[in-house]
Amino acid sequence: MHCKNYINGEWQPSSDGATFEQRNPANLSDVTGLWPQSPVEDAVAAVEAAQAAYPAWRALTVFQRADYLKKALALMAERREAIAEVLTLENGKTIAESLTEIDAAVKEMEFQIHEAIHLCGQTAPSAQDGVFAYQTRVPLGVVSVISPWNFPFNVPGRKCTPALMAGNTVVFKPASLTPGTGEAFTQLMVDAGLPAGVFNFVTGGGSTVGGTFTTHPAIKAVSFTGSTEVGKRLNQAASANLTRTQLELGGKNPMIVLEDADLDQAATAAATAAYACAGQWCTSTSRVLVPESIAAELTQRIVEKAKALKVGHGTESDTGMGPVCGEEQLHNILEYIEIGKGEGAQLLSGGNQLTDRGMKDGCFIEPTVFGGVRPGMRIAQEEIFGPVLSIISVKDFDEAVGVANGVEFGLASAIYTNDLSRAMQFMEATDVGLAHVNMLSAYKEPQLTFGGVKNSGFGIPEAGKTGIEFFTEHKVAYIKFR
After folding, report:
1. How far apart are CA 184 and CA 167, in angstroms?
2. Active site (catalytic) residues
3. Rounded to two decimals, what is the model's pTM?
4. Residue 434 forms beta bridges with which residues?
5. 400 and 255 in contact (C-beta within 8 Å)?
6. Nearest-angstrom CA–CA distance, 285 and 301
7. Are residue 203 and residue 260 in the same domain, yes or no?
């Protein structure tokens, strides 16, 4: 890895020489790289480079831009294993999970390239004789992408591809926990031959790099994935320049399991969605809502699956769950576990930091299950972003839907039932952006949009047909020809 910024076609250190360490969450004594702790001046230089490159990039046809991105796509597939290794080293997720993320990024990128090629305008009849009227879409200019550490490769692909295909130039800030994965994505653009300044990569703090990429007057749009708190501040700062924002934020995703459901299937789905990526998907299931009549049986199955999950280094092939991504995450999750116990929830499984079997220097937490959780408890209301699952007993379907909706978030939800009527009622009532019947709360496909409601998202959602819409402006033309 370069461990440098990429600005105006050149790899370069921070202008003041400052750096920060990235540490392997499976072994915090392992420093994987020293990355530029870039000052504002470096972020400004990246924006100015993108601004200078914009006219020539915009002037290319969409097919010419696609040629560059298709080269990057081919390189992504070729480097699949190498990128996955970097991802696991920085994030901690298992190699299998990292490979799945790379594969998802390939599909996302492929869809957005072809979606841009097929992006067409619209003609309309005019009220005046001899007037041809039409509407088209044009790029915005310089746009910024600020990506998260939980999906540090897939999310940049999902955001940067439509931005570039639309004719914008990009400044990209990766999460400081996963800069090497961001560098691997950037290297694809470099090796695909993108002209200098079209794609720029800068590491550093949110208040310096992130702040500049939000408030610089040349920035026309910001696509951000991260916490709700940070997203709200970003949106407020961007509004000073009327800069559009696309915010993918937190979640507190419920799964309802009804009496007629296949309980083993539901328990497997709950455990998978709760503990994949150590519970650090924004679409992870964090609450299971179940009628009292089957609560004990379902709980027993979920606890058994949680206890059977092997926690260990993501590089080991038999690991079912890796570490959480860093010391701050470790301490926050352990604090929430103590909060849950203090609120009177029953700790049924897990709840401890793991330090045996080579894990003493890492950020490992047991898959945790709480029972006896009441809807108003903090562990049932606040995003923990870790391997902690709360099981809440309810009287009936109506109460389950009310509890599911009774949080500030609205990203994803799921229901397990064989009752078509209840399934359809749920799909109508669930207050989220992604709803599922007899499927994981985390499931998505690239041809459909991805975004939440309430405090889980803001602006035009990413992916699907709106992926490129966010990065374009409407233009209407009237042509008098007689």
Report:
1. 22
2. 248, 282
3. 0.96
4. 412
5. no
6. 16
7. no
